[in-house]
Amino acid sequence: MAETSMEQLVSLCKRRGFVFPSSEIYGGFAAIYDYGHYGALLKNNIRDAWWKHMVQWREDILGLDSAIFMHPTTWVASGHVGSFDDPQIDCRTCKNRFRADHVLESYGIEADKVPIETINAELERLRHEKKLVCQVCGSKDLTSAKQFSLMVKSNLGSPTNELSEENVVYLRPETCGGIYLQYKNTMDALHPKLPFGMAQIGKAFRNEIVARQFVFRTREFEQMEMQYFHHPSMTKALYENWRATRWEWYKAIGVPEQKIRWHKHEKLAHYASEAHDIEYNFASLGGFKEIEGVHARGDWDLAQHAKFSGADLSYFEETTKERFVPHIVETSVGLNRLFLMCIDLAYTEEDVDGETRVVLKFPHALAPVKVAVFPLLKNKPELVVQARNVYVDLRKQFLCEFDDHGNIGKRYRRQDEIGTPFCITVDFDTLTDQTVTVRDRDTMKQERIALSELISYLNQKLCLLS
Question: What PANTHER family is this protein classified in (predicted)?
Fold first, then answer.
């Protein structure tokens, strides 16, 4: 099979109702996407699998759903207002913008987290060597790099239309800020003992200079984050434990181990002692890209918010009579990136009888629709009624679809393209022997199953292969 291209995934996602460009009837809105019916179902299945693993199946992690808007000082304390930015350069000819560090990396120059002065020195060297050209139009007329803030501003609650530093409210650039602000309330209300974690899923916003690569990098996105609070003496052991735990989760949801790898950060934030990314090998993006980060953040976050707010965010350990500010191990996942990972991993083209079959081979637990039910013929009322009865019974337990449009072959292809594991056909034999044909998505093999055994059959198949 030929390598999967991003164009193939984008086309399928739009054609089959997974992802649509936002505001398309008005010409679209750059780097913003809406998730259609099947996209919402897939994204929710990924989200629920993470929540089950991180909260439902553990005693030491509590859930939270904090607000997108927070007091502006939150982001001053965290350092985002002062330093959450990327280096930007512009092409004066075609007016395109680029991240300067990414431009340098395209010339083999490592530029992650380097000072703006160093970036401009490297750009000037390339310009002097007549190598620096626009990646879009080829022009040599490029600006120097400048810092570009990633914070998205709002005047929420302001009595004036004017947006100034005095009335600005920021849309959160990451979800973990809400966890830090609700740490004290959680301690006072639920009285957890260290070590424990707080997890949440929610939207975040970043004013990316260049937001491309479909849903991999967008300006509005969803994160699934967990902050694990603990005594500093436990950091090293807990950090390795969380690395192992998160790695095993990807295997559990059906990601082959050879498709993921660890990337260790050589340049760390000043407060961090360790940082690793889990990277997935995207066929559609041409290589390994970050999908999750695991970070040892020290006590920076709680210490900063305690300093700026005046609140006591320390913890008193009764057994040792020690008071300290808890340290944090963080796991941070991009839900939209996992969505793209699942599409990228599942997308398959196969030759079937001289024709190309496009199929999304999702792990069963993540498939948007689990079962589709067809009457063999739309114009035979007795088959339609029986098929409807089967559909109504099954949808009480499974996410199901009923489809009677076109011939059976076309219906199979439609379900293949949305990743439905099993298709059930009600035919004339069903009316006499109360059996149906069950067709497997991956093998295309068919079995006759008694209606009385259908639910247990599907439960076994979906459970064993999820």
Answer: DNA POLYMERASE SUBUNIT GAMMA-2, MITOCHONDRIAL (PTHR10745:SF8), GLYCYL-TRNA SYNTHETASE/DNA POLYMERASE SUBUNIT GAMMA-2 (PTHR10745)
